[in-house]
């Protein structure tokens, strides 16, 4: 049977994922400006909260502390032994997430400036390829 820590982590992640999906499904088109109205419903209050930099700061800090705490719990697991394949998998997931973030950010930035989707995809792939080359060079120099 799985460790209770893993089950709790999976449950919390599932709840966060469902909340994120519900928020994105209900979100409005952020490129359309609507003047503020006199009456504010619950969604407008949530929208104002999500636009606050303080909210994003606290969300980032909680996420960073959660990931750090999860790593500590993983390393100090019941047996205290961490397999190499698990660390490799965590590294691959981190690299894919960072690469996806870099690609998508570049793609959306270029598309927002009026460039076609093929050129935007090329710019995103060029950035990710450049980061991969830098990672290989650093690995070769430090090996």
List the helices and strands and how they pair.
Blueprint (H helix, E strand, L loop, with lengths): L3 H23 L15 H9 L2 H23 L8 H29 L4 H26 L1
Write a brief caption for the model:
The chain is mainly α and 143 residues long. It has helices at residues 4-26, 42-50, 53-75, 84-112, 117-142.
Q: Would you give an account of this structure?
A:
There is one protein chain. The chain is mainly alpha-helical. Helices cover 77% and strands 0% of the residues. It has helices at residues 4-26, 42-50, 53-75, 84-112, 117-142. Helix 4 (84-112) runs antiparallel to helix 5. The mean pLDDT is 76.
Characteristics of this structure?
143 residues, mainly alpha
Task: Enumerate how many helices there are, as a single number.
Answer: 5
Helical content stands at over 70%
Question: Given the helix and strand composition, which structural class is it?
Answer: mainly alpha
Share of β-strand residues: under 5%
| β-strand number | 0
**In oligomeric terms, what are we looking at?**
single chain
């Amino acid at each position: 049977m799985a460790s209770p820590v893993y089950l709790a982590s999976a449950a919390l992640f599932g709840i966060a994922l469902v909340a994120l999906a519900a928020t994105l499904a209900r979100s409005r088109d952020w490129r359309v400006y609507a003047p503020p109205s006199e009456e504010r419903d619950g969604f407008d209050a949530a929208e104002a909260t999500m636009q606050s930099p303080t909210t994003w700061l606290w969300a980032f800090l909680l996420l960073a502390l959660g990931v750090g705490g999860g790593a500590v719990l993983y390393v100090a697991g019941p047996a205290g032994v961490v397999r190499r394949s698990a660390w490799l998998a965590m590294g691959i997931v981190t690299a894919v997430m960072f690469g996806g973030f870099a690609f998508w950010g570049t793609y959306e930035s270029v598309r927002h400036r009026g460039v076609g989707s093929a050129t935007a995809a090329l710019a995103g792939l060029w950035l990710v390829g450049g980061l991969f080359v830098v990672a290989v060079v650093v690995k070769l120099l430090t090996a």
